[in-house]
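[[Sequence with tokens]]
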Amino acid sequence: MKTVYYTASSLDGFIVDADGSLDWLISRDIDQDGPFGYEEFIKNIGALAMGATTYEWIVRNHPDEWMYDQPTWVLTHRPEIIAAEHPVQVFSGDIAELYAKLASAAAGKDVWVVGGGEVAAQFVAEGLIDEMIVSYAPCSLGTGAPVLPVRSEWVLAESAANGEFLCARWVKAQTVG
């Protein structure tokens, strides 16, 4: 089991623009079955953690059924944002405590830190992210929410082009050697 931060980024390191929009991302061509594609990635995921902003974006942009079969936790101090029909749990507290729940629920599969950057930063600060898979879109935003707003060291493990994206898998620097 590993914990993976799987996300997308502009070339200048932002997940969303200053208005919280992903229009710059979702209008681009990527093969979900291609290198670092979502379809293969999600097969290995046993549990998910996401922030409230990510959850709210999903609700706004995919208002139908909940899109994940895996146990999911939303990090928030606002439990009222969770739709009653969504099989997700709310968490606010120590990330190490949540990590234990995620690892147990994943049952040997990987844990996906969906995002955003602030949530991933909490996991990174505790040494709990094993790898990052980032798909870089061919644009810059100038400002917005950063991919990872904490200092950390990574080693490039592999990369490939997929549609308009350059995709890279990074592993924790201390795990290489």
User: Anything to note?
Assistant: Residues 72 and 88 are 5 Å apart (CA to CA). The mean pLDDT is 94.
